[in-house]
Amino acid sequence: MRELRKLTLNKLVIRKNGYIVIKNRPCKVVEVSTSKTGKHGHAKCHFVAIDIFNGKKLEDIVPSSHNCDVPHVNRTDYQLIDISEDGFVSLLTENGNTKDDLRLPTDDSLLSQIKDGFGEGKDLVVTVMSSMGEEQICALKDVGPK
Question: Can you tell me which family this protein belongs to (predicted)?
């Protein structure tokens, strides 16, 4: 599966809340502004975006006639089966197999919600975001007691 799409900016298809690749990282756009055509060339698009995996703010200025990389971002829900002592989670996939290669999230709020809910014996469903060969747990749903 292809991880990136190339889009020409003069169609202005990358908007706020869309996705863009900046410094080889998949990011969610939080601000877009364009400058007028100047004496020496093209109008420019200024993007401010947040890395979808580590939350860092990144910026890029691209001529509007150039191409821009757009990542494929997928979100998948899995049922949480177990949490190992070394910080890995065991997840149940739709076809009944287990997925054991993901770590607990680094976000303290989400981490405590997962650990507390699992400790209380609740049935939890985690949402995993994946893009450009990376995966991370980004959300949690409580579907009730076991």
Answer: Belongs to the eIF-5A family.
